[in-house]
Each structure stands twice: as structure tokens, then as C-alpha cells.
Design goal:
Elements: H1 20-34, E1 41-45, E2 60-63, H2 69-79, E3 84-90, H3 91-97, H4 99-108, E4 113-118, H5 153-159, E5 164-169, H6 173-185, E6 190-195, H7 207-210, H8 212-218, E7 219-222, E8 229-230, E9 236-242, E10 249-255, H9 272-279, E11 299-306, H10 312-326, H11 332-337
Parallel strand pairs: 1-2, 1-3, 3-4, 4-6, 5-6, 7-11
Antiparallel strand pairs: 5-11, 8-9, 9-10
Length: 344
């Protein structure tokens, strides 16, 4: 299959320069690589710029109301487990009004592929701060700077018991396609945080890693089974150190040839290391006053966690089949025949 097979006939109405264009193209490439026929794919969204995505993909699609994409996607997958279901949502749609649905689809481990577009702003409603906007961020709804601490999506996903979490960047097409393919291949709730730029209301929000010259120093692309090495010259590695006072593990940067450099294991059941990886680099983005420093930990891109567990839709359908098998009445007519009846 070709990426063009998954392109709809609709004009793509993202703003010129919006990072959503890149994710849309990556989705089409990933779907073609996966090779599932278009009629076996459903794309569900809430409301927001990214939630226009069902219009631009040649699959089944459904725009729901604000924040409710997760509820509808859960229903679609549970009632039609044979479908591959994608959910498109933004940081506002997904983590604010849709936050409750979001954490519960993760907790239930519904077999969904969730793309959470994070531009740290409300774009469609014209520039209000969102749940991922950094503390101190000045916007139309926070003219003196927001006083709120932002959500860190990785922390939220892993705290809810997530079995799959990946993070990618709009300007890194190969990593984005790899993450989306891995998300679909995972049996369970796959969350892909897509760091995207909003050229109108929050331009440059991810510039410290989007800039090609800085990216190698400020980010690391994790690959299962490979050493955690990064840097413009691949001269840095990641290791874990235990604080001698608090006994709390923390990530540290060491020379690439240090024997302590870790090999990435996305399938490790214990989430401790995945949580450390997911939180790396977040000190740069939780506050507008944070100063980027080359000695700081990089932000992790790629698949951070990928573990197997029973899925909600599988468990529900197995339970239904089991109850039907044990039930004495196999049809509606047989059921009504067991009840007391009377004639008027």
C-alpha cells in the first residue's frame, strides 16, 4: 500500500507551517507501512486543530465533541474489535476537558492508538494557555502569566498504568513514522505524544529541540536494545545513579564509552526507568524561566515504554462470549419464553 491510499480528497486546512501537517503525512506513511486496508481503520477525534485529522485520512472517521474522543473510540473498539482505531487529540482536548476519559482509557488498556498533539496552547480557540503551557506563560487567558504547573504527559500516562508511551517531534519524520507503526503493533492503549509547533499562537515552543543544530545535544532517540547514546558526536550516554541521601534513582550524563551507559529496554515491566526517561528534559519546559543548558539531561524521543497486558476490549468480548456460552437462553425468543406472560 502507498501513503496516497490514505489521503482523502479534502483540502488540508492546517495553517501554513503548522506541525500538524507533518504528523498527518507521517500517519499516512505509517498506515501504508502497516498495510491494514482503509476500510478496517477508524479515526476518531474530539475538537481542536489536530481533531480535523479524520477529514484528511481515507478511512472511517468520526468527529466527536470536545474531549470525548476517548469515550467514543473506546466504544468503537469494544463493539468492533476487528477495527484498528486511532484517536486524534490535542493537549487541550485530551488533558483538560477530556482528561478523565484519557486516564481511564489508559487504565483500562483499551487497544487504541492515541496521537496527543502537544503545542502547549489552545490553537483553534485562538491562543489561550493549555494544561501543558509552562508556568509563567503569557497568553490571551493569562495576560500576567499563568500560575499553574503544567501536566507532563509522560508522567500522567505512566501514573495511570500506561503500557505504551512514545514521544516524537513534528520535524523528525522518520522517528514519527517509527513511533506510529510501533503504536499500532502494540496490543493495548498506545499513547504517542507528538510535539508540534503552532506557528500562529506559540511559534517556536519546541525550538530548543526542533532546531537541527541543537537537536543532537538536547534530545536522545531511544531504540529498544540499543545503548542510550546521544550528542552531536555521539559522545554522551545515559546512566542511573542512586542518590546517597534519599536513595532515589536519577538519570545522569556520562561519557559514551562509560560502562555504566544503559541499554534501552522498552519492554521492562517495572516502569521506574521509563518514568525517569519520560521526565528527562522536562525542567526545560515546565517554566518559561527555565534556562536551556547543554549539561542538562536531554529530552527522550522514540518509544519509551512498550509492555504487554490484557486489553479491555478483549476482556469484555471474552466475558460476553463466556456468558453466552453458559446461558440457558441463547436467543431473545428463548429468553422471553422463560418469563411469566399474560394476554390483554
Amino acid at each position: 500500500m502507498q501513503a496516497s491510499d490514505f489521503k482523502s480528497d479534502q483540502y488540508v486546512r492546517f495553517c501554513p507551517g503548522c506541525g500538524d501537517h507533518a504528523i498527518c503525512m507521517a500517519l499516512q506513511k505509517a498506515m501504508a507501512q502497516i498495510g491494514i486496508p482503509t476500510h478496517e481503520v477508524a479515526v476518531v477525534s474530539g475538537i481542536g486543530c489536530s481533531s480535523r485529522m479524520p477529514h484528511y485520512l481515507n478511512t472511517y472517521g468520526f468527529n466527536t465533541i470536545h474531549g470525548r474522543g476517548g469515550a467514543i473510540a473506546t466504544g468503537v473498539k469494544t463493539s468492533h474489535p476487528e477495527l484498528t482505531v486511532w484517536q486524534m487529540s490535542g493537549d487541550g482536548d485530551c488533558l483538560a476537558i477530556g482528561g478523565n476519559h484519557f486516564i481511564h482509557e489508559i487504565r483500562r488498556n483499551v487497544d487504541l492508538n492515541v496521537c496527543m498533539f502537544n503545542n502547549r496552547i489552545y490553537g483553534l480557540t485562538k491562543g489561550q494557555y493549555s494544561p501543558t503551557s509552562p508556568k509563567g506563560f503569557v497568553s490571551k487567558s493569562s495576560p500576567f502569566g499563568t500560575v499553574e504547573r503544567p501536566f507532563v504527559p509522560a508522567q500522567l500516562v505512566l501514573g495511570a498504568g500506561g503500557t505504551f508511551f512514545a514521544r516524537t517531534l513534528d520535524v523528525d519524520m522518520p522517528t514519527t513514522v517509527d513511533c506510529l507503526v510501533a503504536a499500532q503493533q502494540h496490543k493495548g492503549c498506545s499513547i504517542v505524544e507528538c510535539l508540534v509547533n503552532c506557528v500562529i499562537f506559540n511559534n517556536g515552543t519546541h525550538a530548543w529541540i526542533a532546531d537541527r543544530e541543537q537537536r543532537a545535544e538536547h534530545s536522545i532517540i531511544l531504540k529498544h536494545g540499543e545503548k542510550m547514546i546521544f550528542g552531536a558526536n555521539n559522545d554522551k550516554g545515559l546512566a542511573v545513579e542512586i542518590d546517597p541521601v534519599t536513595f532515589v534513582p536519577k538519570m545522569i550524563v556520562v561519557p559514551a564509552d562509560d560502562p555504566r551507559v544503559l541499554v534501552h529496554d522498552a519492554t521492562q515491566p517495572d516502569p521506574t526507568l521509563h518514568r525517569l526517561l519520560g521526565l528527562m528534559g522536562q525542567d526545560r519546559i515546565v517554566s518559561v524561566n527555565a534556562e536551556p543548558d547543554n549539561d542538562q539531561l536531554p529530552i527522550a524521543l522514540g518509544v519509551i515504554r512498550n509492555v504487554e497486558a490484557e486489553t479491555y476490549d478483549q476482556a469484555v468480548n471474552e466475558q460476553i462470549a463466556d456468558v453466552r456460552e453458559k446461558a440457558k437462553a441463547k436467543t431473545f425468543d428463548e429468553l422471553t419464553a422463560t418469563l411469566d406472560t399474560f394476554l390483554l
